[in-house]
């Protein structure tokens, strides 16, 4: 099953987290979303596609940030996903 949302993001992980948050907000049942769920991120300009698993997103969010800006981004995405 494929669902599509449009988000504005500055990184692959931010786009993935914002998409999951939008699915949740829109009422899609996240019960079917697990670590093995694959997310495809398509960049409009320039046209690019990336794919990552929910497990990879969760792993990245749970790891330490290499720089203060990365750590701040992770905190923001944790809040967006409701994972304070």
Q: What is the compact description of this entry?
A:
With 84 residues, the protein is an alpha+beta fold. It has helices at 12-26, 54-62, 68-81; strands at 38-43, 48-53.
Please summarize the sheet with the most strands.
Answer: 2 strands, antiparallel
Distance between the termini: 29 Å
Q: How many distinct domains? A: 1
* Total beta-strand segments: 2
Order of helices and strands: HEEHH
As a percent range, the share of strand residues is: 5-15%
What do you see in this structure?
45% of the residues lie in helices and 14% in strands. It has 84 residues and is α+β, with helices and mostly antiparallel strands. The protein has one domain. α1 packs parallel to α3. It is globular.
Features of the shown structure:
84 residues; alpha+beta; two-stranded antiparallel sheet; 3 helices; 2 strands; globular
What is the topology?
Elements: H1 12-26, E1 38-43, E2 48-53, H2 54-62, H3 68-81
Antiparallel strand pairs: 1-2
